[in-house]
Amino acid sequence: ATGDYQQSDAAHHLHAFVDQKALNSEGARVMVRGEGVYLWDNDGNRYIDGMSGLWCTNVGYGRQELIDAASRQMKELSYYNMFFHTTHPAVIELSERLFSLLGDRFSHVVYTNSGSEANEVLIRTVRRYWDIMGKPGKKVLIGRINGYHGSTVGSASLGGMAFMHEMGDLPIPNITHVDEPYWYANGGDLTPEAFGKRAALSLERKILELGADRVGAFVAEPFQGAGGMIFPPDGYWQEIQRICRQYDVLLCADEVIGGFGRTGEWFAHRHFGFEPDLICIAKGLTSGYVPMGGLLMSRQVGEALVERGGVYAHGLTYSGHPLAAAVALANLDVLEKDHLVERTKNDTGPYLQRALREAFADHPLIGEIQGVGAVAAIQFAKNKATRERFSDEAELTWHSRTVGFELGAIVRSTNGRLIVAPPLVIDHAQIDELVGKMRQAVDATAKKVLG
Ligand code: PLP
What we know:
This protein is of the alpha/beta class. Helices cover 44% and strands 16% of the residues. It is globular and about 65 Å long. Bound molecules: pyridoxal-5'-phosphate (PLP). Its cofactor is pyridoxal 5'-phosphate.
């Protein structure tokens, strides 16, 4: 029974980013089944998944093609590694597919099991690259305040969340952070574009302060996910790119959320119009069916490591795991066969964005809706004209999220914003259902606040 599961769960688990004591008194929801955009819990309640699991089930739950590919691969070659001068067909084919999506500027990949590991590999690879280029001083990596790149030592250091740094004495040396392009909160009287430029210039200031001969890379999410789903103003990324090129700093895009169709492009950097040198992927690569991530390298970096780097002193037992590679290939097949990226760009994405704006534009609690494709954030505001925020906005968005769950719609509350990112297979009727429930949930919060 659900109560037994909850008791046992409470006895053994420390859940991610929660006060475990508080969760224990409430009991975790026990999820047992998924199909398409829906999930069911152990008591038979159905939820529409407005979060694609954790921004990962891009093709939805239970796709037979992925299940069959997994089963075939497990029978054929359940495991082998890439250590003993060995490789295997699934991983070879996967890399061919990824680089055909990325184009000729990119050439090399190191596979990992997660997005956190992709960022760990990035840190070491950046430093190695500058070593072999004869600039060993370029050790510093610059991330952004409230950026999120994972929970391991290096990736959480790259991330800019102070409460995470408190756990485990982070950041590690030679990692620092610059401004996030969060206009609604920090833009003051500036236009979004002027503010975006100012936020980008905080990178240039930091590089000048440290000295360009010490800075190896800038790492950021094309749009900031866990830190509140913040979409930078127009021109931000172009200014960032200008700065990185000017000071010979590698531009690294963490596409762990943005990759594989989320914005209506295969990669989010295309939506924002910039050219990274390194790209972290995970999540949508396999639609979360099995763990897999990777660090993708531009030809400039990849070929330098091959030609001049000698031994690449890094390896994971499960790098390029046959099962993960086979599932990733089947996942790419589904994304292509069902035209899910194009559909997100031209059909369901615009439909979702419009539905959210119609539902919330005049809502008394809501200040702004940001989003593109199948991802959006709803900014709560006390006063729309001045962009004054509620002092307790985190509790308010948490309340809406909790009512949403009770109504059977999963959305997330993060950094005082309500965020939504449904599977790319969602259709119009399901978008209506999701947005309708979100509206009901936010209405319930409004009733609590405004009476
Ligand atoms: N990078 C970004 C942008 C993420 O959103 C996440 C996870 O949410 C990660 C990295 C870490 O990925 P993982 O949880 O697979 O380690």
